[in-house]
What we know:
Layout: E1 2-6, E2 11-17, E3 23-28, E4 35-41, E5 49-51, E6 57-59, H1 64-71, E7 74-75, E8 78-79, H2 80-86, E9 89-95, E10 100-106, H3 110-122, H4 128-146, H5 149-161, H6 175-178, H7 183-193, E11 199-205, H8 209-219, E12 244-249, E13 255-261, H9 270-285, H10 290-297, E14 306-312, E15 315-323, H11 327-344, H12 348-365, H13 369-381, H14 389-395, H15 398-408, E16 414-421
Parallel strand pairs: 3-11, 12-16
Antiparallel strand pairs: 1-2, 2-3, 4-10, 4-11, 5-6, 7-8, 9-10, 13-15, 13-16, 14-15
Amino acid sequence: xxxxxxxxxxxxxxxxxxxxxxxxxxxxxxxxxxxxxxxxxxxxxxxxxxxxxxxxxxxxxxxxxxxxxxxxxxxxxxxxxxxxxxxxxxxxxxxxxxxxxxxxxxxxxxxxxxxxxxxxxxxxxxxxxxxxxxxxxxxxxxxxxxxxxxxxxxxxxxxxxxxxxxxxxxxxxxxxxxxxxxxxxxxxxxxxxxxxxxxxxxxxxxxxxxxxxxxxxxxxxxxxxxxxxxxxxxxxxxxxxxxxxxxxxxxxxxxxxxxxxxxxxxxxxxxxxxxxxxxxxxxxxxxxxxxxxxxxxxxxxxxxxxxxxxxxxxxxxxxxxxxxxxxxxxxxxxxxxxxxxxxxxxxxxxxxxxxxxxxxxxxxxxxxxxxxxxxxxxxxxxxxxxxxxxxxxxxxxxxxxxxxxxxxxxxxxxxxxxxxxxxxxxxxxxx
Length: 431
């Protein structure tokens, strides 16, 4: 087992790769009374089409990854949630566009809970009856999301920004797409993506790293290899697919999301680009930024306003949103402020203050075992080490942020998604 030291943070990670390709990362924290384990696969809602181990293309309905996450908690012994709860663990899972993760937290019974986690995630059990039942449950979840303006405004934005990339597809799918899911589809996708060399196990807390490796070697016995390359669609153009989209819903004031379509980071540079992107969001959308104060004083935004950098393989973007009586005025102000910053620059003291605040926030997040494990896993899938973020911060200058503003924050790369009150759906109203 390799011990990697991150001296700038005072952190150490025990790292080991099993013979079948499963990567194991353990952050030992003897001062903690609890343990956290995160078992993830590089498979999410955007992986709709892929090569199987025979070299043939496989097309799957939208929502399979999310459906599979739900069904993995079924086993021949019963519901895994109940089994782990009886052993003192709180467990759950999530599916995003590019990752599915299963996790638990406990203060007792760690080894038994880890056995259960590793076993149920790698041992699928589906029946026609259970799949049909789950279709009804997820269909209800989908209908609930269709009534949620925050969800709708987000997916409107994804469809407006991207023409080809499957990030524009809803992770949960649609009622029509999940109706096509069968046990055979679930088994095929599990076989393709829930393979050791496509997965990572991250553990943090008062644990024995050698024991974690022994348990993983004992339970995750199937071999790796054969994971097909996913098809992420044709190459995306630089410009957005649509600059403006809207729909009516029963809201009292327009809800909006503004998206800035960027470009993927070069290999090995995603963590650095993420940090630059987050600083750009602080400069443009943060509560300490000049634009935030201006928009707030003009009554164009309220405390719901905020932004962030997001990325998945094949795309990266900035987004900001909230409530506004005039979303188009906000969009225009953002573009104007980006241009001003490129020309005039930013107060050096404010830049250094924003950098220090961002760095401090990341260091504080290390206090959370959950956040640490999830970040370790996501950065492992990107081919990077999350705990190298101090060196990345040290290398970032205002010129990096200015370059992103200049290249990304231009009209052809910006899309605006609005959910407006019923009866006010005339697009010209917001011009």
